[in-house]
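Progress against Task 2.4 (sequence-to-structure conversion) is shown through the following example record, which the project officer requested during the mid-term review.
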Amino acid sequence: MLELNMSFVAIEDGREAERDPLPSPKSVRTPGVVGTRLFVGRDPSACRPLLTPHDWLFVSRKHLVFEYSEDRGWTVEWPRGQRDTPVAIVRIKRGETSQDMPYGAILPLPARTSGNILVSDLARRRSVVLAWRAMQPIRPSAASSLDGNAPPTVDVGPEELRNKLRGVRLEVLAAMSCDWIHGRATKRPRTTDELCEMLYMAKATVERCKTELRRDFYSSALCPELNHLLGPDYLDTTPHVHGGWDLIAQTAVTCGIVGREPCPCARRGGSID
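Structure tokens generated for the chain above:
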């Protein structure tokens, strides 16, 4: 299920514009059915009910596309148009991570997460605000188990990666993903030292596991945004501890690599709430 709430903001001389009343906020909830597509933009034939003001020309006719697919879940795309350079700024916030969305990019909206997307003109005086919330989908395996039939394997990538991450590395990944496993606000360890304390592991062991996890996720192609959008050096240079690890952790939960059993914070009898 994907929930979208769209509102509009216009600023004129430091005040909210009163000359032209803005459209009322709009809300949409749609189930995660493979092939579902929602458009945001000025095209009245394709974008209802997520239709933006017709005279806000910095918004293209089909500016954003939300799509659900079986392998990637919900994604949002900023399609390239005829212009080489866009006349809008798109900024997306997912969890604690906020970034400008590259023109032409496709980004995941993992289950159990929420955030917002801001589409603004270059002067940042008019904005379309999209608050989104992606809820946990019913997995094909859960649905098919009702009739006792085992589902066919569609993509063996996640299962192969999970088998590869046995033992300590899987435990470290589960600890880093515990907020998504429990479906709660971000409460996981903020530093490597806190992670070591939760797991009762030496810092050198945890750091080695994190390096191996990053390498394995890059090579698995389960999280292509880390390679193509953040760049291979992002996790080494980011000023905050987890940074791009949010994408690794969310992908691990979404693909079922972690979350099948209690995470380390529950097994140890402690709580980070």
